[in-house]
Write a structure and sequence with these properties.
The structure is a homodimer of 97-residue chains. Chain A has 97 residues and is an alpha+beta fold. The first copy, chain A, has one domain: Alpha-Beta Plaits. In chain A, 37% of the residues lie in helices and 33% in strands. Chain A contains four helices and four strands, in the order E-H-H-E-E-H-H-E. In chain A, helix 1 packs antiparallel against helix 4 (73-83). The relative contact order of chain A is 0.33. Chains A, B: Pfam families: Dabb (PF07876). Chains A, B: Homodimer. Chains A, B: It comes from Thermocatellispora tengchongensis. Chains A, B: Residues 2-95 form the Stress-response A/B barrel domain.
Chain lengths: 97, 97
Amino acid sequence: MFRHVVLFRWTEDATDEDKERVARELRALPETISEIRAYHVGHDAGVNQGNYEFAVVADFDDTAGYLVYRDHPAHRAVIDKYINPYVAARAAVQYEL
Amino acid sequence: MFRHVVLFRWTEDATDEDKERVARELRALPETISEIRAYHVGHDAGVNQGNYEFAVVADFDDTAGYLVYRDHPAHRAVIDKYINPYVAARAAVQYEL
């Protein structure tokens, strides 16, 4: 398995609705991108200070499956319309499970 | 389920052995900390530029299980001895699955 992890911090002008829309739009992607094996996104629970605000953890059979997701038009549309306008910081890793 | 995600960038003086030791020491923790339900750590695969270098994704039944892990002496010892000396950047999120 091949795992993609990305964490975000949002800009100060991002509203709660903007943040919830990111989660909603991403959660619809597994219906469209069949290479996704597991997909869990969520807002930081507020347990620790200094955290990022939002997480995406997505699993694929292999690197090729991840690349289909990364470059899929439905995913790019969510990134361009709903994520990029509000990104203050981004941290990502892909790794073999 | 409650998921903990943390990504690291290492300092320039961290050797490959230092980085591999972090992975090895962390992977031993599920034997000691019974609250861990799933635990996958790994080095960035090098697919994308600008990534962080190392990921930890850990799943627990609930927030209480995560807190046991967070504060467990065996975990704190790994952080103090093998992680903190080499951290250049850290990004974390905990969220409900």
